[in-house]
Design brief:
The protein is α+β, with helices and mostly antiparallel strands. It has twelve helices and 13 strands. Bound molecules: alpha-D-galactopyranose.
């Protein structure tokens, strides 16, 4: 059985406020420029922020009941909400000109609203998720205007960031006094039941419980969590973006979820104490490995080894042994490449180069895989030399320049003071 962490008392969604920064102020100015000081507005605009995240350990364990160690970053999603008098909802983004408008009372009265396969499905899904556990006044329409500085589809959890910022804004607009856990459930409803991606719980937890200078250690079996510090004076997190975006990712992701479920179904009769795949003893798996389909066996091996690796990495970090934590990240990447088969050449090039660089302690693909980014932990102060060398190595291998960014801890989820 996996150890449980302390279960925290429920945090309120409206507890946190975030100091203003130029990037937030300019998003608000953009909103006014695009939507004007409309006479249909029933109140002043409010501004909200939710971070993105990198996952440093525990890849593809959340939907297998295992431990994960994500860290929220300072980049994220900005959202302006302004109440309207006419009962309509408008959803728009600074990223393109497409927007949607609908009547709130009609949506709330619709029996089984369907997703439209557009980016605003996440916003609508969260609205419907909140409506499942709270009464929303159908007359209180609003404008939502999204923006931000998080690359979309890069494995930095833009979808959880959008969902959580929506939940925190709607909580304030409807005066709901929800807990962070309820917002997380609304985000999960949006992604799983409305949009149809069978994601685990890691991303909304990483965003919802972000704390500067900390990783979140979350046990996905029982949702218990604790913060684990990473010394920001000595180490920093770098993200190298391959700029490869895989359209196939949703189907491939759901296939991995199904293969893990198949592995658990086959192994559970031999492991009566295991409530999920990550709790099946390795010896039980190895005794029955040959009876599993080869792809299913590979997925199970990754899950079981990654579970032990993540707990060992947590112990190392608690003792301040960042080098051991980094080695675990490299091992995790190898397993994602060979057993879980979610890596691509571009990601592998980056990790192999990172292994050879003195400033780097560890690195692996972050997010679901099939493209996106590698996260590395490196010694603070050496980032410029690392970034230059990394670009040269990547350009030689793939003829393109990757995007590299270094992140600070996140200001967390909340309302920006404007
Ligand atoms: C995606 C999912 C997460 C998690 C990761 C892999 O980001 O949304 O729930 O499964 O992949 O660790």
């Amino acid at each position: 059985m996996l150890p449980s962490m302390e279960v925290q008392s429920p945090r309120r969604l409206n507890a946190a406020t975030i100091p203003s920064e130029p990037r937030f102020a300019s998003h608000l100015a953009e909103f006014i420029a695009r939507f004007g000081d409309s006479s249909s507005a029933a109140g002043t605009p409010r501004l909200f922020f939710a971070p993105g995240r990198v996952n440093l350990m525990g890849a593809h364990l959340d939907y297998n009941g295992g431990p994960v160690m994500p860290m929220a970053i300072d980049r994220g999603t900005f959202l302006v909400l302004r109440p309207r008098r006419d009962g309509l909802v408008t959803i728009a983004t600074s990223m393109d000109d497409e927007q949607t408008t609908f009547n709130l009372s009609v949506l709330l009265a619709t029996k089984a609203p369907k997703a439209e396969e557009r980016w605003w499905d996440y916003s609508v899904g969260v609205l419907l998720g909140l409506a499942r556990c709270a009464e929303l006044d159908p007359g209180r329409g609003f404008d939502l205007y999204y923006g931000g500085d998080l690359p979309v589809g890069a494995g930095l959890s833009s979808s959880a960031s959008v969902s959580l910022v929506t939940a925190v804004a709607l909580n304030a607009h409807f005066g709901l006094d929800m807990s962070v856990d309820q917002a997380i459930d609304a985000a999960l409803f949006a992604e799983r039941e409305f949009v149809g991606v069978m994601c685990g719980i890691m991303d909304p937890f990483a965003v919802g419980f972000a704390s500067p200078g900390h990783l979140l250690l979350l046990n996905c079996k029982d949702r218990s969590w604790q913060h684990v510090g990473l010394d920001g004076e000595k180490y920093m997190v770098g993200i190298i973006d391959t700029l490869v975006r895989r359209k196939l990712a949703k189907g491939e992701f759901n296939l991995r979820v199904e293969q893990c479920a198949a592995a658990y179904k086959a192994l559970a009769p031999f492991a009566p104490d295991a409530e999920n795949l990550s709790e099946v003893p390795l010896a039980v798996f190895e005794a029955h490995e040959r009876d599993l389909e080869p792809a299913v066996a590979k997925r199970a091996r990754h899950v079981l080894e990654e579970t032990s690796r993540t707990f060992e990495a947590r112990d190392a970090l608690l003792l301040g042994d960042v080098a051991a934590f980094g080695c675990a990240m490299f091992d995790a990447h190898d397993s994602l490449r060979d057993h879980f088969e979610v890596s691509i050449d571009e990601l592998n090039t980056i990790v192999e180069f990172a292994k050879s660089h003195d400033a780097v302690l560890g690195g692996r693909l972050t997010g679901a895989g099939f493209g996106g980014c590698v996260a590395v932990i490196l010694k603070a102060g050496q980032q410029d030399a690392f970034a230059a060398a990394m670009c040269t190595a990547y350009e030689q291998a793939h003829g393109q320049t990757p995007k590299i960014a270094f992140y600070k801890g996140s200001p967390g989820l909340g309302e920006v003071v404007i």
